[in-house]
Model the fold of this input.
Amino acid sequence: MKVKKILVSQPKPASDKSPYYDIAERYGVEVVFRPFIKVEGLSAREFRQQKINIADYTAIIFTARTAIDHFFRLCEEMRVSIPDTMKYFCTTEAIALYLQKYIVYRKRKIFHGLTGKLDELIPFLTKHNKEKFLFAISDVHNGAPNVLDQHGINYTKAVMYRTVSNDFSPEEKFDYDMLLFFSPAGIDALLKNFPEFKEGQGDVRIGCLGTATAKAVTDAGLRLDLEAPTPKAPSITAALDLFLKEHQTAAE
Done:
């Protein structure tokens, strides 16, 4: 069966130069961007239930720009003043630079990794081991904190936002030939919105990025037709390109 319509469970790219548009034109497919999940921040009241006093901490770890937004939002709502001496540890340079939205970047002590892996921050964290770290996370997070535990980092996990299902309305058509997912939460949202998938996906292809998402697909009893990264396809768009090249030609 030829793929004609693909749902990408992410927001629409800001740039018109996205590889998805090239793929759509090359293979004559329609690509629709529609997230299955969305992020919502905890209220100040919800955050206080964790009994965390932000003012007690001298450094903060960020692994996403979303975490930065909700950290500063909560500080504003709770009237917490962040001292100039606060140290910021970010898993990528892009996340670190995003801090400029809230602070005077050049006047702060900011450290960052290169690839987004928390492991890369360990040399910086151990060098500043006298700091008391706050780790800003969502309610759905992976086992990354284990890395901090292994190196004896003095930190506290602070849930500041949650991932929830971005429900489909009855009026929304769901006539896709392929679905692309980027997190286990997306698979949960699929089954919540369309429980019939538990009985089988039929001809609908499912692709994903990352081993955790791939496991969520198979654990749900679904068929995984496309996975990235692989040696031949380091990105989801590269994997999609290879899939369509093989299957669209075969379907003609």
Summary: The longest strand covers residues 155-165. The chain has nine helices and eleven strands.
